[in-house]
Amino acid sequence: MKLTACLSVVASLLASTALAVPAGPITKFQFVESAGVAQFRISTDTTETLLSILADNTLRVQTVPAGGEFVEPTKPSIVVKKSWEKLAVESKQSDKDIVVSWANENGYKIHINKAPFKIAVKSPKGIVYEESAPIDITPEKTSQFLSHGVEEQFFGGGMQNGRFTHKFTKIRIERSEDWDDGGTPNAAPFYMSNNGYGVFRNTFAPGTYDFTSTHQPVVTTHNESRFDAYIFLADSLKGILNGYTLVTGRPFLPPMYGLEMGDSDCYLHNANRGERRTLSWTTDVANGYIENDMPVGWLLVNDGYGCGYEDLPETAQMLSERDITMGLWTEFDLTNQPYEVQEGQVRVRKLDVAWIGSGYEFALNGCEVAYQGIEDYSDARGFVWTVEGWAGTQRCAVQWSGDQKGSWDNIRFHIPTLAGSGLSGQAWTSGDIDGIWTGSAETYVRDLQFKVFAPVVMSMSGWAPYDKQPWRHGEPYTSINRKYLKLRESLLPYFYTYAAEAYFTGVPPVRSLVLEYPNDPITWTNAVQHQFLFGTQFLVAPVFTDTTVRSGIYLPEGTWYNYWNGDKYHGNQVLNNFPAPFDTLPLFIKSGSIIPMWGNVNSFKHVKKTDDLIVDIYPAAGETSEFSLYEDDMVTRKHRTGEFSYQNFTMTATETKIQFTIGEVVGHYDGKPDARGYRIKVHADLAWMASHEVHCNFEHTLEKDTVILVRVPRLPVGTSAQVVLNMRPRANFVMQE
Questions:
Q1: How far apart are the C-alpha atoms of 51 and 79, rounded to whole Å?
Q2: Angle at alpha carbon of residue 177, lines to 175 and 180, rounded to 5°
Q3: What is the CATH number of the domain that holds 663?
Q4: CB within 8 A of 587, min separation 6: which ones?
Q5: Which domain holds residue 620?
Q6: Averaged pLDDT score across all residues of the chain
Q7: Are residues 297 and 200 in the same domain?
Q8: 94-107: per-residue pLDDT in tens?
């Protein structure tokens, strides 16, 4: 019996590992063409591989067990780009390898090792991507093994709570309701290397990516018996993100109200607060924002299990009269979208884990159904919040980090979470201000200071001992929260331009420093995990402990100013014990910045065509800088058919002269003004200002010791103008100590 049992176990093991025998030498290499795509079919004794040259910087490798078929993942498809232009491809063989070449500006060539079968990509600079062993396929899982350099860094994996860089770590690529530090609320089967490549595994199967060893290969595994990977080649992480989001879908462009403060609670059958009435309770909250002079863009009126709603059209009308957009949460399938979107004016959807919590293809499908429902029954853009996202979700939803408790630690781990998610093309991410449970007045203020610089921002009430609207704790907290919400609102013209950049290129509007400073090794590491860039010009260093100083702030190359007082700092240094009083977020702006802004408004709907555009500029002597302001109607989908505009602003400066050029507005959209006035705020160094007299070709005043306000009267938007400031040294000036 024992011998029989042993033989049975051996037979079972042999059967289960039959497909795990490493691929031997190539037995057949054949050029094929499908739908205009150049492909090579490569056979070994154990596998069949299809290598596709899709574009100058994009490859696809599909491997199945010998005799298997090349199939796509189940619907919905993660991949949205299905057609490619035909490329001229050639191959040359030697005894040891096959070299595949095609026209591309970086000189990439594929080197295929014959025995055993392995793939590498090389450029004139060296090895970009190299398998260290053949792909390993078993009935349960498929693994790829890649060589890597000692200095090579890895980013991506979707939303990995508490992390943005993955050197020396192993990350999970899976649906999970672990939403605290270390959790994966919105994983994605994608990563990229600063060696010049990224890999997207075209699958809904969970997996792991192991970057732990310096001396062993990177091992990426998914729990399925097929390998399907798109490989993106580029000199920059931005270029890789461009390729990845071209294949899986560009981040959607939110409507402007989606970039404003959002608020959610249950205003009917509230399990934690008792019975309410949708219209009257929603009215009280909406009026609360108005009475407290706080910006708000949208309200969810039914966010809670079993909540429901009543008087939806009447509630929507009340909100509309207050310039607030209606939103609904759902824990079930969306079965009443025509009524809710048309009569109920629903323009925001939040999808609960109770519905889409199984993740993967089900969650992606739910996201697309919700997004499309808004667009099918209105002229607005879809605007959806979801959790348990995957590759492709960036095209249809904000991906929030799940439900947490308000705490200092919650603030801490969200900083690398949100910045790091952008390194997977997840442009729109956030977490609830001060969590949904517990929290305090102090953690609320510090979290709000941070999250007004997050891609999107919202609060959720109904679960903590206190409601989470930004005025609930009274003074001084209310005034501090108001200050930061108003700052975000004023910066939306600047930020919306980066939102458009994400829509066109996949590069996120909130950025880890490595995206802008990839050649600075400090930006690769956890030394900068608790700071990020808002656009390219603001550096944000949130306070995440109960303190009034902030240490470990790294300023990369260039000159930086303290946004609040104009103090000047040189880059390539770490600031320790930086003053951070409770009402002050450490915030820096880079020299050379051009920042278009609105005035004091609490909604984008309050901006009038006759309003001046405020432009803050920070001249840098010896430098030329520019900013191209993107604009459209802010709500509808007409930007997809080319209805938008750009306006270029250019600045050059010397020690004695500043030239600021206001370019014409190029393009058209509904609501575009015919003329526009400008208030140019010139920020300069205090000592320099004190030692110079200012002469300008437009009316100007000294607004502060370091700010010159130049007023440019309304100009037709089809014309340009140049503001010139000449600086003359004051005679016999002596700087006072």
A1: 17
A2: 115
A3: 2.60.40.1180
A4: 453, 538, 539, 540, 541, 562, 563, 564
A5: 608-729
A6: 95
A7: no
A8: 999 999 999 999 99
Give 613's pLDDT tier (boundaries 50, 70, 90). very high
Half-sphere exposure of 88 (CA within 13 A, CB side): 2
Q: What is the pTM of this model?
A: 0.96
- Hey, is 587 helix, strand or coil? strand
- How many structural domains compose the chain? 3
Q: Is the pLDDT of residue 35 over 90?
A: no
Q: Report pLDDT for 22.
A: 60
Q: Identify the domain boundary among 460, 478, 505.
A: 505
Predicted pLDDT at 398: 98
Reported as a single tens digit per residue, the pLDDT across 89-145 is 999 999 999 999 999 999 999 999 999 999 999 999 999 999 999 999 999 999 999
Question: Are 171 and 291 in a shared domain?
Answer: no
In 240-306, where do the E strands start and end? 262-264, 269-270, 274-275, 298-300
Quick one: which of 530, 325, 521 has its CA closest to 413?
530
Phi (first) and psi of residue 434, to 5 degrees:
60, 30
Q: Establish whether the linkage from the previous residue to 586 is cis, with ω within 30° of 0.
A: no
SS3 184: coil
Average pLDDT over residues 552-561: 98
Alpha helices in 469-607 (DSSP H): 477-490, 492-505, 513-516
Q: Report yes or no: 58 and 233 within 8 Å, Cβ to Cβ.
A: yes
Look at residue 3 and tell me whether its pLDDT is greater than 50.
Answer: no
Edge-to-edge strand list for the sheet holding 458-460:
429-430, 398-400, 384-386, 346-351, 325-330, 298-300, 262-264, 458-460
Residues 99 and 206 in one domain: yes
Q: Are 356 and 411 in a shared domain?
A: yes
Torsion-angle region of 290 (φ positive above 0: left; ψ -120 to 50: alpha; else: beta): alpha
Taking phi over 0 as left and psi of -120 to 50 as alpha, with beta for the rest, 500 belongs to alpha
Q: What pLDDT was estimated at residue 691?
A: 80
Considering the domain boundaries, does residue 47 fall inside one? yes
Helix (H, G, I), strand (E, B) or coil at 576: coil
201-206 LR contacts (CB < 8 Å, sep 24+): 201/173, 201/227, 201/228, 201/229, 202/72, 202/73, 202/78, 202/79, 202/228, 202/229, 202/230, 203/73, 203/228, 204/73, 204/74, 204/78, 204/360, 204/361, 204/390, 206/172, 206/173, 206/174, 206/175
Contact assessment for residue 299 and residue 262, using Cβ atoms and an 8 Å cutoff: yes
Please report whether residue 421 resides in a domain.
Answer: yes
| Angstrom distance (rounded) from CA 576 to CA 697 | 42
Do 235 and 150 share a domain, yes or no? yes
How far is C-alpha 21 from the geometric centre of its chain's CA atoms? Answer: 41
233 with 285, same domain? no
In whole angstroms, what separates CA 271 from the centre of its chain? 34
Q: Which helix (H) or strand (E) holds 349?
A: strand 346-351
Q: Nearest CA to 599 among 588, 614, 587?
A: 614
Q: How many other CB atoms are there within 10 angstroms of residue 737's CB atom?
A: 3
pLDDT for 635-682, tens place per residue? 999 999 999 999 999 999 998 999 999 999 999 999 999 999 999 999
